[in-house]
Design goal:
13 helices, acyltransferase, [acyl-carrier-protein] S-malonyltransferase activity, EC 2.3.1.39, alpha/beta, globular, five-stranded mixed β-sheet, Alpha-Beta Plaits
């Protein structure tokens, strides 16, 4: 299998790629593109051989797709398959990369900081450790809308103070949109109090409370696997979830990936960083439109694209090539 390398692509100056995390999976993802681009199935075959089970079959049938240990390698592989199609069609290499939660691994593979084979094995283990860290039903996540970040943090601290478990702000996704995670009863308590404060609260259909202190035991085990994995500095800067900064050495990369399991995803700050660096175009490289829709709300982002179908891929490709001055 011949894969076009990152160094063969022209470098963008105004474009960033972002990679979605868990929740963006859908049955039948990339089926249309797979019919026209052999690199899609080739990528899934490469990843399946690394983890020892058929990721394409899971993606297309939906069987066990929502089990975290399967969801994570399937989504990672789908994102890398889309990236490879982008390169095959002559797309530019973005100026920056960022991934939401699991998507950070997609960004690191894209930046050639780690191999796809190593990454899918890591996220398969990551999913298993996360699932085993909290017994089924004892953890939950919810989106809190319409309240200031500080108010959500205050509600979480007050709920956790009683000592009957914990609840934390897990994802800062956008202004007025914070996801919380933690012990089920406390998540429900914060949801009720958020509604009393004129906010909205939506329970999320997840089996694992990600990015909260309940994940610390999983993080300790995961750190050992990270130490055994070959990692290099990214060839395109990758903005880290935990601090919205770019690592300057591999030790920082490993530390941030470990901390990511139990610390908040700083997506609001990540997108602000991109805007501060002059990014005007955002391409969401993965199934769905969650991150591109968030980007469309930002003042300095001119356009945001999803590329999970042939039509969307072609629209994004032509618009970005024109914007970057690669075609008239």
């Amino acid at each position: 299998m011949s894969i076009k390398r990152l160094g063969q692509a022209a470098q963008a100056t105004k474009t960033a790629f972002v990679f979605p995390g868990q929740g963006s999976q859908k049955v039948g993802m990339l089926a249309e593109l797979a019919e026209q681009f052999s690199v899609v199935k080739d990528t899934f075959t490469e990843a399946s051989e690394a983890v020892g089970f058929d990721l394409w079959q899971i993606a297309q049938s939906g069987e066990r797709l929502d089990q975290t240990e399967n969801t994570q390698p399937v989504l990672l592989t789908a994102s890398i398959a889309l990236w490879r199609v982008w390169l095959e069609l002559g797309g530019v290499a973005p100026k920056f990369l960022a991934g939401h939660s699991l998507g950070e691994y997609s960004a690191l593979v894209t930046a050639e900081a780690m191999t796809l084979a190593d990454a899918v094995k890591l996220v398969n283990l990551r999913g298993k450790l996360m699932q085993s860290a909290v017994p089924q039903g004892e953890g939950a996540m919810a989106a809190i809308l319409g309240l200031a970040d500080e108010k959500v943090i205050e509600l979480c601290k007050n709920a956790s103070a009683a000592g009957q478990g914990s609840v934390d702000a897990a994802n800062y996704n956008a202004q007025g949109q914070v996801v919380i995670a933690g012990s089920t009863a406390l998540v429900q308590q914060v949801m009720a109090e958020a509604k009393e404060q004129s906010g909205k609260a939506i329970a999320l259909p997840v089996s694992v409370p990600s990015h909260c202190s309940l994940m610390k035991p999983a993080a300790e085990q995961f750190a050992e696997a990270l130490e055994q994995t070959a990692i290099e500095l990214p060839r395109i800067p990758v903005i880290q979830n935990v601090n919205a900064e770019i690592a300057t050495d591999v030790a920082q990369l490993r530390q941030a990936l470990t901390a990511q399991l139990y610390q908040s995803v700083q997506w609001t700050r990540t997108m602000q960083y991109l805007q501060d660096q002059g990014i005007q175009y955002v391409v969401e490289c993965g199934p769905g439109t969650v991150l591109s829709n968030l980007a469309k709300r930002l003042p300095n982002i001119e356009k945001a694209f999803a590329i999970d179908s042939k039509a969307r891929m072609e629209d994004a490709l032509s618009a970005v090539l024109v914007a970057e001055g690669k075609i008239a």
